Structures are given as structure tokens and as C-alpha cells.
Amino acid sequence: MSKLAFVFPGQGAQSIGMGKDFYDNYDVAKKLFDEADEVLGYSIKKMCFEGSEDDLKLTANTQPAILIVSVIANEVLKSNGIQPDIAGGHSLGEYSALVAADVIDFKDAVMLVHKRGQFMQEAVPVGEGAMAAIIGLDDDKIVEVCNKISAEVGEVQAVNFNCPGQTVIAGTTKGVESAVEDLKSLGAKKAVVLPVSAPFHSTLMTPAAKKLAIELKKVNFRDAKFPIAANVNGELETKAEEIKKNLITQADHPVKWIACVEAMKNFNADTFVEVGPGKTLCGFNKRIDRKLISLNVEDIESLNKTLEHFGE
Asked: What's the CATH number of domain 129-196, 3.30.930.10, 3.40.50.620, 3.30.70.250, 3.30.559.10?
């Protein structure tokens, strides 16, 4: 029997105005934004609705902002009788998935991802780390080049295995720039340095992972109500302790998103709803398996289209 998967976006999906549609139309959105403002001690709501792109782009703000809008979208779907059989989230999105599966409380998740963003930013001074998207080259070739550059120039590694033909690398600025040049010469269709403030999921994030481990120990984790595909290995997990361990590892290890989608497919998920801002994960699905049905919910318009699909 076919199953429904919810997938939650990560950093990069943010935009000014996100969540406003839900805030204007759903009481649950007002409640969750208010709770998040209380937890953070500043108005993330104001930042999302009318702040500057630069403020919203700061990792410590981006992470809670995307999580809040994603959790609201999940609650709105739930209020319309649509709930997943399985879920996954890309990087930061894994925390949104865990709130949806009742593993962690919303307020705890907001504080965790805010601190996670701070720890990641503190781990590498601005300007000393970078990330780049590599389009149109085999993963094996990318890993081989990164290993060579790490030994000769500066640390760099493949950190996001997003979909066939799109892999993200991260590391020292010198290492990433050098790898980009080599990968272009080897035939990459595109090698683009990304506008991010830190080399996420690389080994340079180990100081952040250690600090995050301390914070995670303070939070109550429950077994998941449905399986979650873990970024670190693409395996399905429901046990609280394993999920907590995976989150620590996730901070300085690659996101194996292709493996996550394959695991959800093997669970018989053939319909995926991207829950939260943007359509990035829908795009990845098209490259992973064109037969998958991909929908998204980020505002009232996309919600109505998705509800229409399930009402057919």
C-alpha cells in the first residue's frame, strides 16, 4: 500500500514574508510564532515578515525561522486531516521532522536550532569557510578531488549528496575555491560558490557538534510516532536515543539526502509533500525519481493545491 512522506527543507529556503499567509489565516500560526518569540527573546515573527534579508540570512536566525514556518505548515496540514506515514528533513529540516513526529517539543526545537546556528557560525570565522554546489559530475570524482585538495591546499569535502548530478562541497575558503577550479576543469557543468556564512556539515563543524551535544542532553526526546530518515546514514529510525545521537553526528557529517529519499521510497512512500518554505526538495525528487508525486505547502495557495490533490 502506498505511503505518504513529509519532507522538511533546510537552510537556503528562507525569504522575507514567509509564514505571513498562515499567520493571517490560522490561529495555530499566531500561537507558534508567539511561543517562538518568547523562547528567542526577540521577534522572529517581525524578522520573517518585514525584516532585512541580511538579518534573516544569519544562521542563528535562519534556522529557527525555517523550522517555525515548517512546523506551522505541518500543523495546518494536520488540521486538514493530512498526516504522514514517514518523514525526513534536509539538515536543519530534520529538527522540523522530529517536531512533526512528536520526538521533541516545539519550544525545545526552536532553542536548539537557534543555538545550533550560533555554534556553527562560531566554529569558523566568517570568510574562512565556504561551500559550493557542484552540478553535473559523479560523486566519486568529487570525493576524489576533495581528498586531493585537502592533502595539498586546504580542507574540503563533499557534504550534501542532494540528488544525482548535484553535490555540495564545504571546507576552508582556499580548499573550496581550489576544488571548484579542478572540478570545472574535469567537466562539471557548474561549480558555484554558495552565499552561506559557514562550511556546514564539514569536519570544521566539530566544535559546533560538541557544543550541540551538551544542549541536546538537556532536552527530552521521545520515540518517534512514525519513522524518520536520518541524514547521517539514510536509515529509518524511531528510537529516541538513536535519533539524539544522529543529530550530534549530523552537525559535522555529510547529509545523505539521496539515501533518505530512497529509504522513504523503500517504505512504499510514493507521494512526498515538502512542508515549509520553498520547493528545493521537490526539485531534488525530480532528479532522484521522476515517478514520485511531489507537492509542497508553504502558503495558502500551495496548501489549497495540495488539499485539492488529496481530495481527488
From this structure: 3.30.70.250
